[in-house]
Amino acid sequence: xxxxxxxxxxxxxxxxxxxxxxxxxxxxxxxxxxxxxxxxxxxxxxxxxxxxxxxxxxxxxxxxxxxxxxxxxxxxxxxxxxxxxxxxxxxxxxxxxxxxxxxxxxxxxxxxxxxxxxxxxxxxxxxxxxxxxxxxxxxxxxxxxxxxxxxxxxxxxxxxxxxxxxxxxxxxxxxxxxxxxxxxxxxxxxxxxxxxxxxxxxxxxxxxxxxxxxxxxxxxxxxxxxxxxxxxxxxxxxxxxxxx
Length: 244
Prior knowledge:
The protein has 244 residues and is of the alpha+beta class. It has three helices and 16 strands. A hairpin with a 5-residue loop joins strand 5 (60-65) and strand 6 (71-75).
């Protein structure tokens, strides 16, 4: 989120009296325009603070529609294409950085005792992963951080407005012997409508991947937001107590 500020207002003034207020012109809206965004270079390692050592856990970059395999841009280096708010809204497009080999997208040359249908699914996805090469991002299989920029347009001085939405496709990953739970990267934003010639501001972030415990952190209480229910056939829900 951000707050619009007028470059003409340099100090706070007392609220005008009624007679004076009637003579004051309405405040001019500020044309923020669209937000443009891209993901910066990422590194993966075993340190929360080290932003230079890179073990490169299959890091990929791209612009993708939603959480699909419909890629607008993809590569193993940061994309040079910025994603603008109007295009993002019209196409549900997100600028992404992703890492890790998708969990269970395994080569089934070794029999681990899985049912035939599961083996076929895993082999098919492994083949897609392998054959697509090292420049293809998989936001529906890797752990991915995405940003969808907004188009705020004109806003009132002092009004809070939305820069965009961020998401984490928190999928299980693997594919490395070297422990590297930390992803260091940055989200870069431009507001060229508001700041002509703006080259962008960089906002560093750290994503820490942790082991899944398969244990729910939901706190059940009478009148609370969550209730225990039995699974409903055909709905994809699981009965209470099922391991997932």
